[in-house]
Amino acid sequence: MRRTLFLLVMLCVGLARVFSQAENVPAGHPVYDFLKRLEVRGVIAGYDDVVLPLSRGACARLLSAADSNRTSLSQAESGRLDDFLSEFAYDRTGSIAGFHSLIGSDAPTFGAALERSFSDREKYLHAYSDSTASFFANMLLEGNVRRAGGDVLTGSRAEYVQAGGRIRGTLLGKLGYFAQLTNAQFWGSRELLARDRAINQSLALYTGDSQNFDFSEGHVRYDAGIASLQIGRGRLHWGTGVDQQMVVSDNSPVFDFIRADVSYRAIRYTFVHGWLLGSRGSLTFRYSFDTTSTFSEPTVADKYFAAHRLGLSFPGVLDFGFQEVYIYSNRSVDLAYLNPFVLLESVQRGRGERDNGYWVFDASTKFIRGFELRGTLLFDDIHIPGIFTDRWYDKHALQLTGLWMDPLGLPNTSLMAEYTRVEPFVFGHERSRDNAYTHNGSLLGAWIGPNADSWFFRLDWLARRNLTIIGRVLLGRKGMNVYDQAGRLLRNVGGDENVPHRVSDPETKRFLDGTLEKRQRFEVTLIYEPVNQCWIDVGVLREVVIPAAGENLTQGSLRLRIEF
User: Largest CB tally within 10 Å, which of 49, 57, 231, 409?
Assistant: First the structure.
């Protein structure tokens, strides 16, 4: 009898856990902005967004906490919360009741099932769950039209139609899976599309005989409660910034990685090892049996990313994090960097000091209700005697971010201001060009690059539960290396992460030295959701570069996104 009772209790515990979804919510999902707003306002506590993404189960628990404190929300916030509670309903309750599944619908006719696809119910191509597994599938459709003018793009236009699918779910309440694939057919200006930071990351866009671009992500994640392990390909956001993250931002293409997390009380630990792409070249050779033909094979250097972060949280007072980051290349995967329980600085010294290392410190505090101050300080190879001096090897970067919810009493608004400064020669490496802090030619972290700074301002207004208006302003400066008309480097001022300090370069640096470039960007975006899982985005962008080098741009865009 005792054995039977024990088995029944364990079965109930197992069934209770099965509803906790272990797969991640993509890093760009709007639920993160909403949770951050609620945390700064004091509606919820314990939200840590320094390393994204989080699991659906973690997001669902935070949304449930907000629901229990609903009296603190405005009407628009309460409506937005209801939308997210509907989206994460299964993660909270373990029930798909109220969901609409086009395949397997209980509607009397196919026409009735199709009609439900235009309702405000949570919609899926197919949704299924039982005591062992859950499965959710969505079709993704997007249409985009944009028109531009400027120095070289006057009258340019581009359109694309993008289609794809997403599947996700959890097995036995612990093993989550996620896969998403999209492919777009475009018409018009390839150069205009390349101005888009996201589209620019698709290699297919630069294949001259194609008119498409595609993206693919996928992962499996095992959730053991206080610890989790993930393997896959996806987007990471790592840092305290809102415009650009210092460690990993959305500036570079997605990459494959292994990630492990531990969260217990005030301690949070994250470890990541990623597979990157280095510099490109080509290998030309002749087959011995055919001396009339020459073949050219593209070659890409293999490089790797290893990082970990230890975070300590003192709720309502201070959150603090320390991280080590290393880039290594010119060899296969190094087992030493796959060990999550060692100091990476000691590892790289023991492996011959060949690699590019960084120490990063971050902190955030909410000493005033409705206001959060966040900061990040990055050191690229610390040299204590020369720290914060004009020596070239003083390579550091800093970022300060302020978030103010409902500033000056304006309801449903969020004001963010951010200053980012990167000293000369940061992100480069003197021992190997493939150890630069890049992936496939794009910076992994702060996209402004070395010898640059920027001011960023963002104002969000939740006008209604289904209408958000976002305004962004960027004011940036960058000191560029000096070249002659033939492209020969005349003066290296540390403005290019791919051109490290050389023996012949001066021992001192001067911030913003070289050819000074100023960049100003003004952007307004309106996001309207007339029906659940159908969004209309309208955007206007003006970008000015001084001195103008054919980069000034004025753009208007219209986008329709549908998930079903």
Answer: 57
